Amino acid sequence: MKMIETKAIVLSTLKYGDTSLIVRCYTEQLGLKSFIAKGVFSKKKRSTSIYFPLNEIDIAYTPKNNDQQLVFLKSAQTAYYYESLHFHPVKSAIVFFLAELLNLILKAEEHNSDLYQFIKQSLILFDDKKDDFADFHLVFLMNLTHFLGFYPNNENEKALLFDLENGFFSEINSSINMLNPIETQLFKKLLNTHFDLTTKNHFNQQQRGLLLEILVKYYQIHTNNFKKPNSLQVLHELFS
C-alpha cells in the first residue's frame, strides 16, 4: 500500500518492549491513530523528546489492510519547535493535563481538520505568550466544546443559573446539574474571555480552580465514558 505522510499531535505514549513506544496521535488527515515507534530508547537513537505530549510531528507510515492494526512509523520528526511549552513548569503541567483530556475525549473515527488547526494554533499562541497565561486551559476547554458539539447556548445569558446538563442559561432550577448564581457569573465571564498575546489574566487562583471543576463536570456530562484526568490534581495544586 502507498505510504501516508501527515502531521500529527502527540496525545500519549506507552513503552513497548525495551526500546520502542506505542504513540497515540491526533493526525491532521486521518484523526486518531496509534503507531509503534521503533528504537526510541536505543543507545544510538534516543529520540523521546519528539514524543512529548502535544508535540506536533511529521510522520510517515504504510497502512495495513486492517485499519485497527498497529503499524510501525517509517519516520517521525518534529514539525514545530516550541520554545517554552515543555520547559516552563506551569505550561508543561497544563500541557500534560490537556494531552490527557484530549486523549480521553477524541474518538478514533473523528477526522476534523478545523479541530486539528484549533489545537495547533492554540498551542503556538500559548507557547508565544510570555506571561499572563494562567487562564489558557480554561479558555481552551471552553472553545474546544465548539468542535465537540456542546458549546453553551448563551441566548438567555442574563439568566442567573446555568444548566450543565442541557447547556443553557436558565431562570429556574431545571435539572440536577445547575450552577448557582456565583458559579454562573464566573461561567459567563469565561464564555466572554479571549486569549491572545495582549490579554491579561481574568481570574484569581480560587476562581480558576472552581472553573476547572465546572468544566470537567460539563465534559463528564456530555462525553461518553469520560473520567477525570489523573493530572487534574496537579493543576489544582499548582493554582492553589
TrEMBL record:
<protein>
    <recommendedName>
        <fullName>DNA repair protein RecO</fullName>
    </recommendedName>
</protein>
<dbReference type="InterPro" id="IPR003717">
    <property type="entry name" value="RecO"/>
</dbReference>
<feature type="domain" description="DNA replication/recombination mediator RecO N-terminal">
    <location>
        <begin position="1"/>
        <end position="80"/>
    </location>
</feature>
<dbReference type="InterPro" id="IPR022572">
    <property type="entry name" value="DNA_rep/recomb_RecO_N"/>
</dbReference>
<dbReference type="InterPro" id="IPR037278">
    <property type="entry name" value="ARFGAP/RecO"/>
</dbReference>
<dbReference type="GO" id="GO:0006310">
    <property type="term" value="P:DNA recombination"/>
</dbReference>
<dbReference type="InterPro" id="IPR012340">
    <property type="entry name" value="NA-bd_OB-fold"/>
</dbReference>
<dbReference type="Pfam" id="PF11967">
    <property type="entry name" value="RecO_N"/>
</dbReference>
<dbReference type="GO" id="GO:0043590">
    <property type="term" value="C:bacterial nucleoid"/>
</dbReference>
<keyword id="KW-0233">DNA recombination</keyword>
<keyword id="KW-0227">DNA damage</keyword>
<dbReference type="Pfam" id="PF02565">
    <property type="entry name" value="RecO_C"/>
</dbReference>
<dbReference type="GO" id="GO:0006302">
    <property type="term" value="P:double-strand break repair"/>
</dbReference>
<comment type="similarity">
    <text>Belongs to the RecO family.</text>
</comment>
<keyword id="KW-0234">DNA repair</keyword>
<comment type="function">
    <text>Involved in DNA repair and RecF pathway recombination.</text>
</comment>
